[in-house]
Each structure stands twice: as structure tokens, then as C-alpha cells.
Amino acid sequence: MKKIISVAIIAVALISGTGKSAFAAESYKVESEDTLWNIGKTYGVSVKDMKELNNKSNHLIFPGESLKLPEPVSENEKEVLARLVHAEAKGEPYEGKVAVATVVLNRVNNETFPESINEVIYETSPGGVYQFSPVGNGEINKPADKEAVKAVEEAIAFRGDGNNSLYFYNPEKTNDQWIRTRNVTTVIGNHVFAQ
Q1: Model pLDDT, residue 163
Q2: Does domain 75-194 have CATH number 1.10.10.10?
Q3: Region(s) of the chain under CATH 1.10.10.2520
Q4: Is 12 exposed, middle or buried (0-12, 13-18, 19+ CB in 10 A)?
Q5: With DSSP H G I counted as helix, E B as strand and the rest as coil, what are the percentages for the chain, rounded to 5?
Q6: Which one, of 100, 115, 111, 89, lies nearest residue 156 by Cα?
Q7: How many CA atoms within 13 Å lie on the side-chain side of 165?
Q8: Confidence band of 16 (pLDDT split at 50, 70, 90)
Q9: Are strands 21-25 and 27-29 parallel, antiparallel or unpaired?
Q10: Which residues contact 4 (CB under 8 A, 6 or more apart)?
Q11: 10-68: which CATH topology?
């Protein structure tokens, strides 16, 4: 799924459409206060992927150590995902916002769904209905708040861990019986998460 970039440089790339710059790092030299978790959140990469790429069986890293980094999530995709989280999980606990973002990332990693964040978010059913209601009703076009942005960063670093939820729904707001047949993984706030 993820392409591994082998050149060990740090490049600054301007992401089209966002007006923001992002660091596309292929390797990183560990500093004294670093953790894999903070490196993952800073560079938009999964801790699990970093561990696999660097043949690590635990979270131990050492100052001066050079870590290979997987390809990061683009600033554009982070922004779209944060807007979706903001629209889908307004009023929900922070943990639920992280879980909503994680559902999208789990779909990207699952062969049944499209291979990019944007494709997953904008996917439609055979009947032309969007998978996520904020896409259909336009709520996704509203800016994300800081908590949604932070939740996306955490979900990206957490990517590949957790209960592999592929769906979520609010039982008070849906009459869809199919979604209720899915295996429930957890309930957070008003959302039920399922596989």
C-alpha cells in the first residue's frame, strides 16, 4: 500500500490547493526528546509503519539514530480528513473524533475500499449516494476546528493499530439495517464503530 521512498533527504514541497508547505521526509535523525509517536504526528506517518520499515519490535529509539520514514499523508488529504471529522463528529468526545479519522484510514488500508484518503471520503455507493453524509450535504466544505486537526494527526500516527473499524454510525440518526448487522468494535459517544 505505502510506497517506501529510499533517498535520505528532507525536501519541502508546496502542496497544491492548500497554500501550506509540508515536509516530505524520507529519513529522520532522532533527537534526545523524540518518541516514535511524536515523530509520527509531526511527519504524518504511522508509528506501526515506521517500526516495520526500521525493523523495530518495540518503541525504543536513540538520539543520533537515523530512521527511515514511510511516505507521509499529504497536507491536502489531512485537511480533507479533518473537515470530514469536524462535520461527522461535532459534539462527540475527542476519542470519537480520532476513531472517525481512523475509520477512513482503515478503509484506505483495506482492499475493499479505494487506496487514498480523498477517494475513500468521496466514494459513492452504486446508487450514487456518498459514503459520508457531510460530503452529500456540503458540510465537508466548512473549515475544521483545531481539535479535528489534532485528531487527524493522532489517527495517522495510530494508523494500523486498533480494532480495524471500517464503519461508524449514530443509531439515533440512521434507519439503515445493513449497518446494524456489522460486528461492533466499540461505542464512543453517540457513534457505534463496526467492522
Answers
A1: 81
A2: no
A3: 75-194
A4: exposed
A5: 40, 15, 45
A6: 100
A7: 23
A8: very low
A9: unpaired
A10: 53, 68, 70, 71
A11: Membrane-bound Lytic Murein Transglycosylase D; Chain A (3.10.350)
Neighbours of 46 (CB within 10 A): 25
Amino acid at residue number 141: N
- Supply the pTM of this predicted model: 0.79
- Residue 68 half-sphere exposure toward CB, CA atoms < 13 A: 13
Each residue's pLDDT tens digit, 75-124: 999 999 999 999 999 999 999 999 999 999 999 999 999 999 999 999 99
Spell out where the chain has E strands: 10-14, 21-25, 27-29, 66-68, 167-169, 184-188, 191-194
Give helix then strand counts, H and E, for the chain.
Answer: 7, 7
Cell of 169: 454510525
> What DSSP string describes 146-159?
HHHHHHHHHHHHHT
Residue 175 confidence class, pLDDT cut points 50, 70, 90: confident
